[in-house]
Amino acid sequence: MKKIFLLTSIAFVMIACRNSGKEYDATGTFEATEVIVSAKASGELKTFTVNEGENVKRNRIVGSIDSYQLRQKQDELTAAGQQLDANAAATGSRQLDLRKQLASIAQQIANARHEQKRFAELVKDGAVPHKQLDDINNQLKVLQRQLDATRDQIRSNNRSLDEQTRAIKAQRQGVEAQKRQLNDQINNTKILSPITGTVLEKYVEQGEFVVVGKPLFKVANSNQMYIRAYVTSIQLKNIKIGQKVKVMADYGDNRKKQYDGTVTWISSRSEFTPKTILTNDERADLVYAVKVQFKNDDYVKIGMYGEVKF
Question: Is the CATH number of domain 68-185 1.10.287?
Fold first, then answer.
């Protein structure tokens, strides 16, 4: 009986020593944020320069979709806007001409009144016949009627011109709205990488016809990567979001590369242990997934196995 107890104790000690000698607490596979870039416009793929495995920068233009018809429409809208500007200038010019005409008549009236006063003195002195003063008075009446008529015309024209100006302004705003919409459509013909990363898959080739929503390529953020590791319920008690941990990747020849990582996600549900995953407790059937983020140095690749030390 003592021998059995002794053997059992030795076995537990050996297991404990073996577990305590582990350089890791959990294992998993490396992942990255993947983005499928789709076409935002329809047309022929005029250029497309990405290749699988290539590194691309965020907002880099990697291709373009035919935008000839859109640019033709843009030129038409530009011409329409220029014509509306010319119409607005002509409207303002007509208002200015009427004001000039009004000022001219007012000046003539001022001159006639000056002559009226002068001739009144001459008639009083008998230097000129009264008829000349009557002619000036008649001229003043004619000029005053012209002034009143011009003012009425200006008021009428102003109402009409104001309506025209409002109509032109509304049309101009409509043209500008169409131009903004068209500019967005033209910008959508440019194919950009939304993130800095590595091109994983390429779905189309230059010269193909694409439609809105058609997948073009897949890119993954290979700078900020994750390892999805699995822990037991016992380990889970000592893990929290934001916790600093060590991430290890196999470097070959029994060498490992180590990275500083941060726990960013912990699953709220357990799952059966994946066949390819080693846990701290080999008897545990149910485990919890944990994601640890770390900064990659281009060595770690998606799908590689890694280890985590909490």
Answer: yes
